[in-house]
């Protein structure tokens, strides 16, 4: 359910933002861009979230180059 909520929130959120910008700017291309961007962001968040939960080793974000597991980052 969490993965589905990330995907739906991305599509609805960015699709809605694209729709609002389309109406405000009188264009017709921002809604599809928003939907695709939202779907991509939702997929990215699902992959990132479940990689952390499974403890997949990733590079640290502090710039030291040290590797940490997802469980250590929580």
Automatic annotation (TrEMBL):
InterPro entries: ATPase_put (IPR032820). Keywords: Membrane, Transmembrane, Transmembrane helix. The keyword Membrane applies. It comes from the Bacteria. The chain crosses the membrane at residues 28-47. This is AtpZ/AtpI family protein. It comes from Enemella dayhoffiae.
């Amino acid at each position: 359910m969490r993965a589905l909520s990330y995907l739906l929130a991305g599509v609805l959120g960015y699709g809605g933002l694209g729709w609002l910008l389309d109406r405000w700017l009188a264009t017709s291309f921002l809604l599809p861009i928003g939907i695709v961007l939202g779907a991509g962001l939702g997929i990215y968040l699902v992959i990132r979230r479940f990689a952390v939960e499974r403890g997949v080793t990733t590079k640290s974000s502090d710039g030291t180059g040290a590797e940490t597991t997802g469980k250590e980052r929580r």
